[in-house]
Every structure is written in C-alpha cells, then in structure tokens.
Amino acid sequence: MAHRRRLPGAGRARLVDVSDTPTRVLIADDQRLVRSGFRMILDARPDIEVVGEAADGAECVELARRLRPDVCLVDIRMPELDGLEVTRVLAGPATAEPMRVVVVTTFDQDDYVHEALRNGACGFLLKDASPALLVEAVEAAHRGDALISPAVTVRLLHRLETREAPDRARTPPAVLSERELDVARLVAVGRTNQEICGELYLSLGTVKTHLTNIQSKLGTRNRVEIAAWAWSTGAVTADHTG
C-alpha cells in the first residue's frame, strides 16, 4: 500500500500518494564536479529531485536536518566531518529520527564498508558506478532497501563461501523456484535489476516481483542479505562470477 501525505490547501486538505512525489536527495561531496555530475544524473529523472548540495560534512549534517531529504548521498572523505561520522550522526543507532544515507567513495576498502553499514548506511557505492546503479541505489534507499556496489558485494560475500561452507544451516536453495534462484544468483554476483532483466529476458516488474518473493521465502530484508544467503548456502559460487 502506498504511503500517503496530507497536503495543505484551500478548504479540505487533500491526500496524495507519496509515490507520486519525487524522491528528494541531498548530495555531499567536497568536489564540485562530482556534485554536479551526480546532480545531472539524478535531475534527469522525473521521479528524483536534488534539493541541496554540501561541500563538507558539517554542512551536510546542517542541511540534512533542515531539509529532511529522503536520501543523502555522502562522500567518505570530506572536510570538517568525514562521511562515516556524518552517517553515524544522521543514521546511526543512537539517532532519534534516522535518515537514509548512501555512502559514495573512490576508496574501495573493506573497513570503510563495514563501518558505513555499522553506522546505519543503506548503500555503499564507488564513484565509478554507472549512472543506472546510482539511480538504483537512491531508489533502493528510499524504499528502505540496501544496495552495495557490485565489485564490493562480490568481494566481501565471496568470503562467505569458504568461511561458512561447513555450516549450511540457512534456508536451502530448494525453497526457491528455478527462476527465483536464477535471480538470486545474479543479485549475488552484483547485477542490477536492469542487468537481470537483460540476462534473463524478463520485464523490470517481473524481476521486482521475483525479488519480493525471494525475500519473503528467505526471510531477508534486502538484496545484500539475498546475496549473503546465496554465497553462504552455496547457491552461488566463484564459477558464477564469470
């Protein structure tokens, strides 16, 4: 069911579906060209609106608290406050009204990923991610999902294949249909929804339906957990990454 928002107006207030309003995004990066590039990509979408830009972490926190965007895109290395601290302040466990933060960085380091996710981030992208993946990360964050750059996801989750191989106590792959398993495997090797459409010759709506069914059957909350399940149960292996 779509959430609804009451809008003021003459006479009775009217209700509109929040899904009909653009996703409001705040961009924080100390490089003006990066901010401009992200704005150009996101503003090209009719369902996304960039509502502000910040050149450092302190400005990002101030703008986020004032503007209350739906999603904050936050760089790791910024003056004043770095992106990890900004994430903790805006989305961390101690935050009364946590926001949805997607961390974007040039630095592909495991400790950054773990710290960002511990601090409440709902996405982790590398700056060389495609425009489609940037848009998908914003959309995923807005709906409460999580998305991590494919290169990061595959490297981190590949370790589960070895580390958790002796313990296959999770839901077995057989619980999924053949097509759902195909989708789960592609998620596990970092494919976006659009790429899954192309590889399996499915519509975007069908892919989203499969993902919803997979999450329901596995008890997972998002595509990152689907990927973790696939690696840890052996549903996907290194052979599938080619």
From TrEMBL:
<protein>
    <submittedName>
        <fullName>Response regulator transcription factor</fullName>
    </submittedName>
</protein>
<dbReference type="InterPro" id="IPR058245">
    <property type="entry name" value="NreC/VraR/RcsB-like_REC"/>
</dbReference>
<keyword id="KW-0238">DNA-binding</keyword>
<dbReference type="InterPro" id="IPR001789">
    <property type="entry name" value="Sig_transdc_resp-reg_receiver"/>
</dbReference>
<feature type="domain" description="Response regulatory">
    <location>
        <begin position="24"/>
        <end position="142"/>
    </location>
</feature>
<feature type="domain" description="HTH luxR-type">
    <location>
        <begin position="169"/>
        <end position="234"/>
    </location>
</feature>
<dbReference type="InterPro" id="IPR039420">
    <property type="entry name" value="WalR-like"/>
</dbReference>
<dbReference type="InterPro" id="IPR016032">
    <property type="entry name" value="Sig_transdc_resp-reg_C-effctor"/>
</dbReference>
<keyword id="KW-0597">Phosphoprotein</keyword>
<keyword id="KW-0804">Transcription</keyword>
<dbReference type="InterPro" id="IPR011006">
    <property type="entry name" value="CheY-like_superfamily"/>
</dbReference>
<dbReference type="Pfam" id="PF00072">
    <property type="entry name" value="Response_reg"/>
</dbReference>
<keyword id="KW-0805">Transcription regulation</keyword>
<dbReference type="Pfam" id="PF00196">
    <property type="entry name" value="GerE"/>
</dbReference>
<feature type="modified residue" description="4-aspartylphosphate">
    <location>
        <position position="75"/>
    </location>
</feature>
<dbReference type="InterPro" id="IPR000792">
    <property type="entry name" value="Tscrpt_reg_LuxR_C"/>
</dbReference>
